[in-house]
Every structure is written in structure tokens, then in C-alpha cells.
Amino acid sequence: MSKRAYSVRDIEAKKWVTLPWGEKWSSPFGYPADNARWFISGASASGKSSFVMQLAKELCNYGRVLYMSYEEGVNQSFQRRLGYLHMDEVQGRFRVAMGDTWEELVARLKKPKSAKFIIIDSFQVAPWDYPEAVKLMETFPKRCFIWISQEKKSQPLGGGAVRLKYICDMKVRVVGYKAYCQGRSIGEAGSYFTVWEEGILKTSNQI
What we know:
Number of strands: 10
Helix content: 25-40%
Shape: globular
């Protein structure tokens, strides 16, 4: 059986629930749907991890957040990041898990009151590849999946990550403690999210 083809009127009638966040977030990222697919990449020491945690904290205002920490686990740097970003303020809506297989994560997300926003850090370390990532998003179309990617020579590491980036709505690259939106939902031209002001000054040789 062939799949349905949508008319212009069908598409125009669609309604989206968007994130009602303030100017700090809407200026660089606009107002994405609450089930948008995110792809966040950046080199080591670029501020990527701090940005992702700040995004996680903001998203706790709109639903439960599950942080799948495949790459770091809950090591000392992860603990320190939770501290200086005051993640205890969102303790009731923020959870961290490690090591789930694809099947275990699916089972976790099928539970009542499971997370609305799921952060996979990182795609390269998670125990699956592109087809399973797509299947995961198709299985839970009302959830927001946020994929974190390693980089090599300023590009996502691996063919699967490159393919995943192309199908995501929000494509964010963190460079020098600035997060730039390169995706389909972009805020004001030239704007960026400041991850760490002092880090920007240091990398710009201004101090």
C-alpha cells in the first residue's frame, strides 16, 4: 500500500507545539517544535558539553529530560559541570543514565511519565548506528531527540553522523564557546548562544 501524499492545504493545517523560551534562546535558535530533532557538534574543548547541559536545564522547563551519558559516564568533569550549572535546581525533571542498549532505551522510554527530551551523548559512542537512530525517532515521534556528535576536521565524525545531521531540524555547531544554529529553524541573522563569556574572550585573544 502506498503512503499518503499530502496536499498544500493538509500541510498548512498542521499545528506545531513550539518551545516558548525567551530571547536568550529564541534569538539564535528561533522557536523550534518541542519534538524537533537536534544535532549538536563541536571539537573537543569548544564548550560543547557546557552548552548541551545548559540546553538540558532550559528544556527541563518544558518536560522531563533524560541525559544518556555514553561518552563520559558520570565522571568527575560531568559532576563538576552539574555543579557549576546548578543542575540541582531541576533535579525533579533531569535524569542521567548510562550504557543502555537500543532495546533497553526503548523500554525505558515506553514507561509512564518517561522523558520528553532525550539527549544522546555521543552518537559515536552509543551502541548503534544511523538506521537504529532513525528507528528510535520513528518509534517515538512526539519526543525530542538531541544527538551529540564528535568532530574530525570540523565535520561530524563518521558517515552515520553526517547522514544523521542532514535529517535533523536543528543543526548546532559549537565553536570557541559560541553555539551557532545551522539548521532549518534559525533565529536572528548572525546571532549565537554564548556558552561561556570568559572563554570567548580567551579564545579571541582579548585578554
